[in-house]
Amino acid sequence: MHPIPSLSPLEPVEPIRVSVIVPVLNEAANLRACLDSAFAAGGEVDVTVVDGGSADESLDIARAAAATVLSSSVAGRAHQLNLGASRSHGNVLLFLHADTVLPPGWLAALKGALSHDARVVGGGFRRRFAHPSAFLRFTCWLAGWRVRWWGCLLGDQAMFARRTAFAAVGGFPAIKIFEDMEFSLRVRKLGRIVLLPPCVLSSGRRFGRRGALRQTLSDFDLTMRYLRSRPKGR
Fold first, then answer.
1. Are 103 and 125 in contact (CB under 8 A)?
2. How many CB atoms are closer than 10 A to CB 175?
3. What is the pLDDT along the chain (234 residues), one digit of tens a residue?
């Protein structure tokens, strides 16, 4: 695997064309706000919703928003994201969770980071949760440092990558969990990863049953076990 060729930061590169890809499975409660935030950028982006077999109104909402709708034979986020990427046309791919809302000005921030420096191969946005927990605000602050120190992003940060980088790493790996982390760790080896300052707003629904602290500790434990299991040198 070879690094993507670098250009001088002042040398213009190919104009940015963004495709937003949203995997869904019964996301009617959140999807409209998610798609509205993507389409707020205007006609400069195309949006593809990849459905994994929803039984609610997700498909109706996606069609009403004028998104391209694809049906996946496999209900798995990695498969759905890869399918959406294969059917979209942008030279930059933004992978957006259906319960996450992009901030105003997201497209300008993304273009500003990518348009004049081919060394930047991907990145994501700062994140905050739609949840009152002060602890979760602290974890979002830590996530910013995680990206700076380690170059590792997670899916609820609206990850994006140049299509060339996506192709170079073979897309998202066919695993059930941590496909976002694994993808990010592979892409970071190709060039610079950036963290953009506008905050995406991600649902706090997964913290509802166990609480912010217990769920975060469980997530951390799973993450550490996954990282320990990764083949060395990957």
1. yes
2. 14
3. 334 444 334 444 578 999 999 999 999 999 999 999 999 998 889 999 999 999 999 999 999 999 999 999 888 999 999 999 999 999 999 999 999 999 999 999 999 999 878 899 999 999 988 877 776 777 767 777 677 777 789 889 999 999 999 999 999 999 988 899 999 999 999 999 999 988 999 887 776 677 777 777 777 777 777 777 776 656
